[in-house]
Design a protein that fits this description.
Shape: globular
Strand content: under 5%
Helix content: 25-40%
Low-confidence stretches: none
Mean pLDDT: 93
Strand order of the largest sheet: 1-2
Distance between the termini: 33 Å
Order of helices and strands: HEEH
Number of domains: 1
Radius of gyration: 13 Å
Number of strands: 2
Structural class: mainly alpha
Length: 88
């Protein structure tokens, strides 16, 4: 998984979130996408044990359900270990 680019990683998570059928929020604009943010892009070929991603959901979902549903739809080598809620 170290040879996946930042944009491909974003696509990978967007697809997993859609397959998990979570109540995600879409971006605005001509081409709506699942609204996520991965602020720190890793260079190609660099491995990481912990990265940050923000996902916007339309309604509350239990943390365990989010982790389980997304991880079931991600390939081996990529997964979510923990999440925390951030309120606006």
């Amino acid at each position: 998984m170290i040879y996946i680019s930042h944009l491909d990683l974003m696509t990978l998570f967007r697809r997993a979130i859609r397959r998990a059928q979570l109540p995600f929020v879409l971006t605005e604009g001509f081409t709506p996408r699942v609204k996520i943010s991965i602020p720190k892009a890793l260079k190609l070929g660099i491995e990481s044990c912990s990265e940050e991603m923000t996902l916007w959901l339309g309604k509350n979902v239990p943390d365990e359900k989010i982790i389980m549903d997304i991880n079931l739809n991600l390939p081996e080598g990529v997964g979510i270990d923990s999440i925390r809620e951030i309120k606006d």
